[in-house]
Amino acid sequence: HVQLVESGGGSVQAGGSLRLSCAASGYSRNGYCLGWFRQIPGKEREGVAALWTGGGKIVYADAVKGRFTISRGNAKNSVTLQMNNMNTEDTGMYYCALLKFDDCGDWPLYEMKAYWGQGTQVTVS
Q: What is the pLDDT of residues 102-116, one digit of tens each?
């Protein structure tokens, strides 16, 4: 079955950087979406960034454009999220998600169809 394992969360001061990683296993199709979401208590989970593993498609939420970069990891079926110039509004639990469809920027679709990791906490102070 599909498993997603996140790593790299932690605490950072405003203006600093963090790098998250996600390793996916149990799904061997050539192309799928791998994305990052975040959630703070009392608010709905929101999409941050996603890419198509087959190449050529990357999407970002407006709130992170120019600051965050999503990319394929060195390991097969992995993805990283480089977060720079972070601010307190970036605080939250960050989740990795795998979507078997190619609508990588369709955030609501993830809530219905995606596989999810356990999440990793990011705190910006």
A: 899 999 999 999 999
